[in-house]
Amino acid sequence: MAHLWKKHGLAYLFVAPAILGMLLVHYGPMLQGIYMGFLDLRLETLRLYLSAPFVGFANFQEILFDPSSTFRTGFVHAVRTTLLYALAVNTLTLSLGLLMAHVLNRPLVVRGLLRTLFLLPWVVPSYVVGLLWGFMWLKNGVINTLLVEILRLLPEKPHWLIGPLTFVAIVLPTVWRSWPFVMVTYLAALQSIPQELYEAARVDGATPWQRFRFITWPYLRPVTAILLLYGLLGTLYSFNIVYMMFGHGAGYPGEWGDLLMTNLFRNTFGMWNFGLGAAASTLYMLLTLALILLWYRAFHEDLRAR
């Protein structure tokens, strides 16, 4: 350690202010938020802020074990919906992005035009996506008109923003906006694979599936790991689409549409219960860390190899 400081001490001094600033910006608010979870920080005690009454683990106990707590019921439903939402969105996004990357990796005449058109959903802000799709999902909206009156795939117009169908209504807009980024990333990875490997495999009589399994996929695993981590964090903390789709936060999206971020926002800032909200946020942070550890165990060998 001493020889490293002697060799790079001046460089460490130059970057020290930036590192200190980043630590304060990131870990200062996080530690303060965790501490707020141990306080009775309601509207009545908000003026006291961090000097509000200390209640220990009471907020955590109410969220985890109190069946009479309305906060707990909504929190549990929101956790379940968010995990299913993350699973559905990332599965569909990665699959669709990989498929379209393979399509654009072929020598098509209109490949440049298709690449531009496919990227358009990605440049639309997420809050605009939520607003537009909220109108499209209405009973007399574009989607029901297309499915019922034009294609005649459904006998009647369903209510997409009420009941279990709400889950579909929040998943599809997220996939629509997210898959172009996955496509571009996979396309760059596909174009970096040496073509000599495919030529040798064809000479040896390998089928398209074998070429994908033994050549393409090993090269794509590290990219898939990063895309999965990026998508996992994005979906676990998704907010804008649901917030804009259901009355700009004023409406309750229902059991199958309420994500954790919208649930915490409504219960914390709508009910002015910052202690419970901070405790719920801390629990959710721990859940997210557990999922990231599972991700790391699954992909750390691929990341280390690259």
UniProtKB/TrEMBL annotation:
The chain crosses the membrane at residues 12-34, 84-104, 116-138, 158-176, 223-246, 271-296. Residues 79-295 form the ABC transmembrane type-1 domain. Pfam families: BPD_transp_1 (PF00528). InterPro entries: ABC_transporter_permease (IPR051393), MetI-like (IPR000515), MetI-like_sf (IPR035906). Keywords: Cell membrane, Membrane, Transmembrane, Transmembrane helix, Transport. It is found in: Cell membrane. It comes from the Bacteria. It is a multi-pass membrane protein. The keyword Cell cycle does not apply. Belongs to the binding-protein-dependent transport system permease family. This is ABC transporter permease subunit. It comes from Thermus antranikianii.
